[in-house]
Hints:
The complex is a heterotetramer, with two copies of chain A (507 residues) and two copies of chain C (162 residues). Chain A is 33% helix and 23% strand. In chain A, strands 14-13-10-11-12-15-22-20 form an eight-stranded antiparallel β-sheet, sandwiched between helices. In chain A, α4 packs antiparallel against α5 (109-115) and α12 (402-414) runs antiparallel to α13 (425-432). The N and C termini of chain A lie far apart (84 Å). Mean pLDDT of chain A is 90; it is low at 478-507. Chain C has 162 residues and is mainly β. Chain C has strands spanning 2-7, 10-19, 22-28, 35-44, 48-53, 56-65, 68-73, 76-80, 94-98, 102-107, 114-115, 120-126, 129-134, 139-144, 151-152, 157-161. Chain C has an eight-stranded antiparallel β-sheet, with no helix packed on it. A four-stranded antiparallel β-sheet of chain C has the order 9-16-14-11, with no helix packed on it. A four-stranded antiparallel β-sheet of chain C has the order 13-12-10-15, with no helix packed on it. In chain C, a hairpin with a 3-residue loop joins β4 (35-44) and β5 (48-53). Chain C starts with a strand and ends with a strand. The relative contact order of chain C is 0.16. Classes of the chains: A alpha+beta (507), C mainly beta (162). At the B-D interface, β23, α13, α16, α17 and β24 of B face β1, β2, β3, β4 and β5 of D.
Amino acid sequence: MSxxxxxxxxxxxxxxxxxxxxxxxxxxxxxxxYSEADAAALHTSLADEAVCIxxxxxxxxxxxxxxxxxxxxxxxxxAVHPGYGFLAENADFxxxxxxxxxxxxxxxxxxxxxxxxxxxxxxxxxxxGVPVVPGYHPVAVEPAEQTVELxxxxxxxxxPILIKATAGGGGKGMRIVTDPARLAVELESARREAQxxxxxxxxxxxxxxxxxxxxxxxILADHYGHVIHLGERECSIQRRHQKIIEETPSPALTxxxxxxxxxxxxxxxxxxxxxNAGTVEFLLAPDGRFYFLEMNTRLQVEHPITEAVTxxxxxxxxxxxxxxxxxxxxxxxxxWRGHAIEARIYAEDPANQFLPATGRVLLLSAPVxxxxxxxxxxMAGDVVGLYYDPMIAKLICWxxxxxxxxxxxxxxxxxxxxxxxxxxxxxxxxxxxHPAYRRGELSTDFVARHLAxxxxxxxxxxxxxxxxxxxxxxxxxxxxxxxxxxxxxxxPYSPWRVADGFRLGGG
Amino acid sequence: MSxxxxxxxxxxxxxxxxxxxxxxxxxxxxxxxYSEADAAALHTSLADEAVCIxxxxxxxxxxxxxxxxxxxxxxxxxAVHPGYGFLAENADFxxxxxxxxxxxxxxxxxxxxxxxxxxxxxxxxxxxGVPVVPGYHPVAVEPAEQTVELxxxxxxxxxPILIKATAGGGGKGMRIVTDPARLAVELESARREAQxxxxxxxxxxxxxxxxxxxxxxxILADHYGHVIHLGERECSIQRRHQKIIEETPSPALTxxxxxxxxxxxxxxxxxxxxxNAGTVEFLLAPDGRFYFLEMNTRLQVEHPITEAVTxxxxxxxxxxxxxxxxxxxxxxxxxWRGHAIEARIYAEDPANQFLPATGRVLLLSAPVxxxxxxxxxxMAGDVVGLYYDPMIAKLICWxxxxxxxxxxxxxxxxxxxxxxxxxxxxxxxxxxxHPAYRRGELSTDFVARHLAxxxxxxxxxxxxxxxxxxxxxxxxxxxxxxxxxxxxxxxPYSPWRVADGFRLGGG
Amino acid sequence: MEFRYAWGDGEATVQVxxxxxxxxxxxxxxxxxxxxxxxxxxRCEAERxxxxxxxxxxxxxxxxxxxxxxxxxxxxVFRLEPPTLREARPPAAGDLTAVMPGKVLDVLVxxxxxxxxxxxxxxxxAMKMELRITAPGDxxxxxxxxxxxxxxxxxxxxxxxx
Amino acid sequence: MEFRYAWGDGEATVQVxxxxxxxxxxxxxxxxxxxxxxxxxxRCEAERxxxxxxxxxxxxxxxxxxxxxxxxxxxxVFRLEPPTLREARPPAAGDLTAVMPGKVLDVLVxxxxxxxxxxxxxxxxAMKMELRITAPGDxxxxxxxxxxxxxxxxxxxxxxxx
Lengths: 507, 507, 162, 162
């Protein structure tokens, strides 16, 4: 089968590496692009060709749609894979790629637009019978009238209520109102914030779902109307509205609920004539009700856990679908095996508001072993800068059941060495070792609830570490072992027995 | 559940590493043992304790049963895992471990003895209704009489016929006879060879199975009579009677045949009251008939491919079974997904009769990616010597189907860097790329048939390689990049355009 | 040879000396009694260090970052201030006592003798290896309590320094 | 700077010179015409080397083994005999011709002048970088065919050496 001749990978980091490797296995040539900050990045040397597309700032490089299109055409590419982030969900870019006769490996621009913006997608979903969070969008134009209108709506929906900005994102213009008396005031400030953030003051109301779980469904849709779902991913463990640990299956789903939510996800995709891989996000309330949140019209960061339990390579599936192949699986053929968890390794300081950390990677040693997968774009020697997403690696562990997967992840985190740049590994370890996490008690406020008091482990080096430092300095790194350093099975000395060789008396 | 407190891992290399990591995930402490040649080996630093058990020669270290038992007791171990090789199939050692009140993680000494030696096991199998290769064992004692007796038997069995040494192994004392007239002569020389090799001249006859496939079945048996099989492994790709590439499922098995062979494997295990993990080896004839060959009463080198398709961790299963837990799976619950292939990386020279190669590992870089697993016990800097099995790593690839698994393995082999020691990686690549292999046309004489004329790839360095060498020497390894070495998106130069910068005219 | 490391709010002085077929490493943390370890160097490469301490084989990744010494054990990374090769500062005067049973092979100093930091004072044989007891700082030997051949027990005074 | 490598039954001489913001590397294999490459060094570390040649970024693992230079590309390992820093042997006399279009920035020699290997003869500007055309071996300049400012085309003679 001939899929594509050459694919432009319009991304960087681990996802670019992931896509290029998939192409190599499929026998498809690749062109990597890089900003001046990424000239020595791993993805550039994996690809068959690498083209510099500008200075480090994304706006001048990875977001330069025209440059990317020019590179793709000059280098004889017949398809473009956007990865995630950057231009992945930019409908105009998808349209532009198609306009020059290349294949965009993802959904159609139309489907992206239908799913873009919160309000349109909510309406589409309601029309398709997919449950959405009860809400109300004002019809009135004049703020004062809107306030009256929304106050009435709030009464109907019931407090606590959530104010959201129509053009919103990232929590901007978002307010939680529990006391009806405060609604008007909060509407005011929310409008101001929305106006400043998005140049659009329009806000709407949504019922507040307390203690929700973030459950998303992976779907695949070919160009012949065939849509299937590959089950859920629970992404409730978040810090500052960003996922850090995802797992599948969700401890909260029964087979029956999974079937219903999966069907809703498929309906959502069909409602917009969706093609290729996508993810439908739901809020799952403690009472078992679920509500459509939004659809991510791209490959997700956390796609590997779905691959681990279904055995399906989602990147290869994306490429085959884009090449016009029909889905080779029927829904009944999809089975789930074992449990998979992904931990996102960020270059950030959990002890300091998760501020991005920078530096040169001095030492790098990733854990290996059965059921352990590491997706990363960094090598020892790389400089982690501030230009791009601080996620530098994904650690994915699979095992027969959740308990074993958690133990494996715990082991793997304890063996993931990244020196030279501060990472969230100790924080991830704290989560994975927390009793509530072990019990599967997950919710989007898990971190706030259980790790508010988290402190980084002591910097105090053990005696062993000090010994290692001194020996390295004594012998000089790189000196070969002293002759006869190995003592043939001589009497064993327990370090504790030897521990206190000679003491200086007091005084 | 408390399995064991502390396990002595009575092995070295990749399997010791594999076992220690499994114990760590299960929360079990480990004691590693090492010979003086292995003091810095990876497995010693992974374990909680490491004890030197003698000089490099196995007879003075890894085969020292008494020393191992003493170490186990002195260090408070309550179980011993033998790995494979060394003492793994030594019934006396298993008995000795049990005798001092420790648990041997493997079958009982009795089961080992029943399966040891070819003739007893053949008889047990015949009794259990497991098909064995038609053969004949002489009753007469006096060689001359035996010859007459065997000649008659040979007529009944039909030529071509195989002469095998009763105490045999490794092809010693083995003869293929196609012409009845040569039988007596061949019997003579076979007896001589057997006498010299094993101190026992006894030989017997077996019908020769032409073009056989080597198919083995993994079984698991608990201490409560419950035995299941985890499907087959095809190990037909061998060099000098040693497996180098194994895969599962076998391209030759139908579900119906798998079920029949699996049932035979289970019957074989039950016939000797087998417990723990074991492997039943069969010869599969082109006509679809299969014959019991022997049973390996231990974990197999190639166990990871079964883990990949069944999702069952065999080492953890071994430990749980040994701890007295019942099998958690019924036969119907065992499912197989996708295709897995293992390539054994040997430190050997395929261009020189596969003679073991030695040296210091200068550079080591293992392939990574979804579906790729590397089990190894070596690190950069290790010295590969002649004392132990030259297998230094196992590369296991899993994918949705055979074609993708083969492509992945091909990719992974091309990215497995081991410098400083000659390995069989180029040879493995030749096999994996051979059309017959791609078609799944496997048989134990695959290598002889298809790779007899194999030549190692040219040592001629490409211009790129020479450039790299000179740049490394010019800048000196470890020098940081020249300032401004990165040229921001400057006009692309095709290396071919630049290729011939300036020429010296002729003359 | 002695190295000084500092981190966060802590610091330590680490002394390394050849002992038998390995190393003897003494760690001094302020306000704590020094602790000595017998260490075998199984491997010491550009980035990887494998030590044997007692019956444990310990794998470390090590690097230099400018002047800092970076040591990693598993995922845990420690950044230690630049080791500076230096003479030990004279500690509080006191006397050297053995805490392991051993035999005095030789006494190298006599009362009244002025010694510098690192000057060997007594050679002991303990646990099948020779250990050189050296002066922790500059000073004067005010008393010697043992002779060659003596068997010393834990707590027994060897030499007094001032 | 020039290095010589030998392997099995082959050998080559590789010349490295700074050119603009990168390197210009010329490979001479016996009996073959020399080939030049423009190379950007993206990274050069203890064991890892990343080069840009044309539009390809090439990752190599490099090491020294005693006197040998080891270079690995993917799984392929090449062992090259010790590079020896040396003057180029005088090649067969001949003349230097450009094969890329460029502009002569400067001519540094005149007819009759004796030059040693490596002596810069002509400075060309080609593809936005300065290229120093150096004498491939010891000899005498017998003719100069260009002047500063000239635009030269592929095949055009620059200087004649004997």
